[in-house]
Amino acid sequence: MDPQLLSQLANDTMPFGKYAGRRLMELPIAYLIWMQERGWPAPPLGPKLALVLEIKHNGLGYLLKPLRRDAPEPH
Length: 75
Prior knowledge:
By secondary structure, the protein is mainly α.
């Protein structure tokens, strides 16, 4: 897996909606499932959210914690 993508998943923030400003990896799994059911946003955000859901569903979110920077990057 691409280390840059993993870093983005750990640090990128949600740009819109109820969870705007929250890191992608901090989004609740229920919200990710809700988005999946309605259709993912266009790339690059949609594929990232789908991967976050897969990581969280498999209980692997802890692997990204060491990649987190102190503050989320603004978009």
